[in-house]
Amino acid sequence: MAVTPLPFLDRTAATFKTDVDAFFAQKLPQFSVEVNQVVAAADASANAASSSKTAAANSETNAANSATAANTSKNAAANSATNAGTSATSAGNSATASANSATAANNSKTAASTSETNAAQSAAAAKASADSIGSGPVTSVNGKTGVVSLVKSDVGLGGVDNVSVIAAGIGKSGVVADTANIDSTLLTNGWYPFGPATQGTKPSGQDRGVVLVSGRAFQADARCTQLWFTEESTRVFVRKNSQGTWTTWTELTRPALASANKRKPLVVSDDGLTEAWSSILSVPMYLDRSITGSAVAAQALDVSSYSVFDYGLTVNTTLSFANLPSLAGETLTVVIRIRQNASPKTITWPSNITWLTPGGLTPPTPGTNQIVEYVLSTIGSPANWYGRVGAST
Fold it and tell me: DSSP per residue over 206-220, as a string?
């Protein structure tokens, strides 16, 4: 039976930990089982060889007895020939038969001797195999032969320390019983399951959950954070401990999405701990998104992406609006900044603009190299705009 060689462990491999676990949990036990099977097979072979040797010796003894009997018959035949001349022919035949029997007996003796020799060779081979197993079937391990005693460097683990992760404070073995006190789970980082019988303070209405503990000691006081992942539903709670005092559990949630909250900003409440949808937006550094470039002959203004359009006129341009939202009681305002060319080009505005100018007239085309800003807004329906001429150079 073949013995499966032990695999080489590469500590640089991404699967190193899995390979080590498989080495000690599967490969090494399998290796021991196969070696024991080889030893058992060798013992069985040695026992069979010994039995064959005994049978050969018995055959040799029987052959010797047969030869003695044959000689006795031969002598009897000779005496019979002397005493009975008339029986000479019969006695001669008997002598020939006796001679043939003697030859057969000698052949049997030779075969028995050969069988004994083969049995001895088989026994010697079995013994050598057994002796080889006893001293170690492996030719060599990391240059070691015979009965090999392995150390961690022989299998590529020279840089691995036998350190308990529990003692290092980065995990906890086993499962925490329901009766464990969740308030006492402070600095040993890791995951802990808690059930209905758990002592200590759990999030309100939560019987079962899994807690992720993260913390360390700072000077004389211990500081720790616990995250509670409830089993009843997809809910997450958090609390912290400082100087032995736990805060209340706070649920990590986002305000519900609803059609009534569309277009409302998500803001932080005054307590700085919660967030909510608000009808008021107050951003100290509010920035409008703008696009700058050279206008083309048919220039679409994509109001879903930008609110400020800065275009240089290099060709006669017709402007239009694109991706207008549906408005209800809301105002949309855009700024269009036009940079006129050294050789003035014309602007054709959309027809649905009511210009808030004297007489409601469409503004004139900017002069040579002039920069003019136009402010356009719409209320309720995006099909009708109000236009104003802003500052200019």
Answer: --SEEEEEEEEEETT
337, amino acid identity: R
Which among 241, 180, 183, 249 is positioned nearest to 216, based on CA atoms?
241
At 189, list the tokens: 């980082």
Distance (Å, whole) CA 226 – CA 224 = 7
Q: How many CB atoms lie within 10 A of CB 63?
A: 20
Condensed to tens digits (0 to 9), the pLDDT of residues 250-270 reads 888 877 777 777 667 777 776
Mean pLDDT to the nearest integer, 292-306: 92
pTM over 0.70: no
155-199 pLDDT per residue, tens = 777 777 665 555 544 455 445 556 678 888 766 677 888 888 888
Q: Which residue type does 43 have?
A: D
Three-state DSSP class for residue 102: helix
Contact 250, 239 (CB under 8 A): yes
Residue found under tokens 């590469």: 10
Distance CA 346, CA 349 (A): 10
Residue type, 281: L
Which of 36-50, 227-241, 284-298 is the least confident region?
A: 36-50
Q: Which of 248, 247, 186, 182 is nearest to 221 (CA)?
A: 186
List, in order, residues 6 or more apart from 3 with CB less than 8 Å away. Answer: 31, 34, 35, 38, 137
